[in-house]
Amino acid sequence: MTQENGKTIVSKMGLGNVTRDGYEYELDVFFDVINKNHMCTSSKDRTRLFTDQPEFVITEQTGKDLLNWSNSGKVDEKFDAESKILSIIRNASSEEELKEKCTPFIKEIQANESIKNIYTEKKQSFTKN
Fold first, then answer.
1. Less CB within 10 Å around the terminal CB: N or C of the chain?
2. pLDDT at 83 > cutoff 80
3. 30 pLDDT exceeds 90?
4. Rounded to whole angstroms, how far apart are CA atoms 23 and 112?
C-alpha cells in the first residue's frame, strides 16, 4: 500500500490466527484488536468485565481488573459448563468412556455446533486407531 507522500507501508494481509477447533471455549476472555491504534473489543467474556463495552485499549488496569476477577472466584455458569464438557471430551481415553461421561450432557453437546464437532472428532479418533 502506498501513502500520498509516495512511501510504502507494509501491512499484513490474509494472515489469520490458526488455532485448533474449540480453543476459544477454553479461554475466559478473548480480545479482538480491531485497528492499528490498538483498540479492541471482547468477543468472548465470561468475566462480564468487558461485555457491552465500547472499544478500548488494553492497559495495565485491564490486567489488574482480570487479576481481581480471577482472585474473586466468580464464574459464568454457562461457560463453566461448556468448559467442563470440553474437558470430559478431551480427557476420554476410549469411545466407551466418552459415551458414558457425555451422556448426561448430550443435549448441551447437540445444541452447540463447535462442541458437537469436537465430540464427533474425538469419537472418530477412536475408530481410526
1. C
2. no
3. no
4. 14
